[in-house]
Amino acid sequence: MIGDFNIVTSILKRKGGGTPCISAMDDFNHFIHSNALIDSTTLGFKYSWCNKRWGSKRMLQKIDRMLVNQDWLKGSVGWRSKTLKRKFSNHSSIVGWNTRIPKPHNIPFRLRKAWISNDTLREVVAA
């Protein structure tokens, strides 16, 4: 699940503004834990939302996230997701990718004639 959940999971996921609603935070954490979900957005920026104000009125929060379960992680070994820099919106984009894409075993070797005509082929092969 990817989205704007409009609530932080802890006071540490918020900078500026008042104290978040504790009961809403508890409900959201209960939802995450009761469904055995894991926040995979651990890379990139710490906060995913900004109210675009400055000084004492500025507020930053991590309210956008990518939640995955154990089955997703087992089927996607090497899964990562990242909170990107905010550009046009007050919300950050989140991107996910797999760091380990298995290579099929039945790929035939192909030789390109252009490789043979390259003057540095011997040095490349020797290395």
Question: In words, what does this structure look like?
Answer:
By secondary structure, the protein is α+β, with helices and mostly antiparallel strands. It has one domain (2-126). Helix content is 23%, strand content 25%. It has four helices and nine strands. The chain has helices at residues 22-34, 70-75, 113-116, 121-126; strands spanning 2-4, 14-15, 37-39, 41-44, 49-50, 60-61, 64-69, 79-83, 94-98. The strands form three sheets. A three-stranded antiparallel β-sheet has the order 1-7-3. A three-stranded antiparallel β-sheet has the order 2-6-5, with no helix packed on it. It starts with a strand and ends with a helix. The relative contact order is 0.18. InterPro entries: Endo/exonu/phosph_ase_sf.
Entry keywords:
Endo/exonu/phosph_ase_sf; 3-stranded antiparallel beta sheet; about 130 residues; 9 strands; alpha+beta; elongated
